[in-house]
Amino acid sequence: xxxxxxxxxxxxxxxxxxxxxxxxxxxxxxxxxxxxxxxxxxxxxxxxxxxxxxxxxxxxxxxxxxxxxxxxxxxxxxxxxxxxxxxxxxxxxxxxxxxxxxxxxxxxxxxxxxxxxxxxxxxxxxxxxxxxxxxxxxxxxxxxxxxxxxxxxxxxxxxxx
Length: 161
Known about the structure:
3 helices; Purple Acid Phosphatase, chain A, domain 2; alpha/beta; 10 strands
């Protein structure tokens, strides 16, 4: 299974559309918030049969998306959230604690516009960064590709445009 993970596109969708075209077919697209209305169109840009998982960001004022979601990817229970409710701008520890308390061993988040991947307290934390307003050194638009193999194991690759 190939999963495209993005966040913080802020309705500047050229890079998102480019990445979708470059990497499709994809089995799932995860958007971790701040699509700012584009969530209504993204399904038209991916290949048929692509599963969509999207959550609400702090700038998604008029969206009906869920605040967060819990999904299963292979052998892993995954918490999807934008991250602002857990203070991820200060650090990911609160999100790791929340994921662990829910029985999730993976948490994916956005909000900081900086790629991040680390294991804290047994929870794999993944942030793809931002395709539209990157804030990490070098400021390259960022996203992740996540793969689930036939044994249900998850691997990921940090990607840049």
